[in-house]
Amino acid sequence: MTASPRWFSKTKANSTRKRRSCPRNIWKNCARKPASLSVEPQRPLALTSGDPSGIGPDIALAAWASRTRHALPPFYVLGDVDQLSSRARTLGLPIELKLSDPGSAVRDFEATLPVVPLRNRLIDRAGDPSPANAAGIIEAIERGVADAMSGAAGAIVTGPIAKKPLYDAGFAFPGHTEFLAHLAGQAIGKPVKPVMMLAGPSLRAVPVTIHIPLAAVPSALTTELIVETGRITAADLARRFGIARPRIAVAGLNPHAGEDGAMGREDIDIVHPAVAALQAEGIDARGPLPADTLFHAEARQAYDAALCMYHDQALIPAKALAFDETVNVTLGLPFVRTSPDHGTAFAVAGTGAARANSLVAALRLAARLAEAEAGYRDA
């Protein structure tokens, strides 16, 4: 069942929607008031540099080097100071690194890049991933979560990792997000449902199913999964993005949202009941809507997040609109987590070709989300 396209018209009701002080477009706010981007005086961001054979170390170093220009919030790197020093020399970056701890990182950040050391060493082999680095990569993620959960860090920002070297070393999780959810669940004593959001200057897109083959999507998609994903999305938009009553656009699975069953029954049998269930819970959800008209400029003004049925339905428009500014945000966790929207890029690691734009956006957004959540709790 296809929703009326008139829902996309701009109305006074939308423009007068009650909102808290945090604006819908966090990027505009960051550009307008860069000096306000610290989380709290003694709560820096924890940054994992990701796979040391990829561009994670490159962009971590480059981000710190641009800290003044981009008004970055203080952060520390969970990593190996020798590996980072080696990469800095390779890149020709005259950056002073300092062994630090979360409590000292804010003070150290102005003149040096604070590095909180790991027990496991990381080998600096740019472009040559190795299972030997798996223990350190995993430890950095575990430490980042522990720091965020304890309050030592305001949020965790994760550098890109590659799955194969971790799998070769016995890593048992489908990916970064699932591992973070596992660690969060251990910390709070109950299961955590993570939701991926790609957040950019003009689009927030949420895939309901993530890293599965396209052929498996119809059987994996359930009404319950869509409802749970929509519920978590709406809650985090309120708590962390400052949107009092979020508007959720729900994309159809099939072309033209199935055209009343002419191109598949999933939108009638699965997606439409999910939208009805979300509406029954008081969530402003509309759909299923044809995905081919959901992402143009005028349509994007009518919703705060788009709920998409599969990975590429969400990520293609998000990255096409703002590849260098889009941030991967994990919703549903008991702490703020952001990440650049790109991978390890082994082919350009250590060459100086990697751009830190997405990491810069991830650091800025992490600080803003943590600040907004603190205000939400105190309200």
UniProtKB/TrEMBL annotation:
Pfam families: PdxA (PF04166). Keywords: Cobalt, Cytoplasm, Magnesium, Metal-binding, NAD, NADP, Oxidoreductase, Pyridoxine biosynthesis, Zinc. GO terms for cellular component: cytoplasm. The keyword S-adenosyl-L-methionine does not apply. Pathway: Cofactor biosynthesis; pyridoxine 5'-phosphate biosynthesis; pyridoxine 5'-phosphate from D-erythrose 4-phosphate: step 4/5. Substrate binds at H176, T177, K319, N328, R337. Its cofactor is Zn(2+); Mg(2+); Co(2+). GO terms for biological process: pyridoxal phosphate biosynthetic process; pyridoxine biosynthetic process. It is found in: Cytoplasm. A divalent metal cation binds at H211, H256, H311. Binds 1 divalent metal cation per subunit. Can use ions such as Zn(2+), Mg(2+) or Co(2+). GO terms for molecular function: 4-hydroxythreonine-4-phosphate dehydrogenase activity; cobalt ion binding; magnesium ion binding; NAD binding; zinc ion binding. It comes from the Bacteria. It is an enzyme of class 1 (oxidoreductase). Its EC number is 1.1.1.262. InterPro entries: PdxA (IPR037510), PdxA_fam (IPR005255). Belongs to the PdxA family. Homodimer. The active site is located at the dimer interface. This is 4-hydroxythreonine-4-phosphate dehydrogenase. The lineage of its organism: Bacteria, Pseudomonadati, Pseudomonadota, Alphaproteobacteria, Hyphomicrobiales. The gene is pdxA.
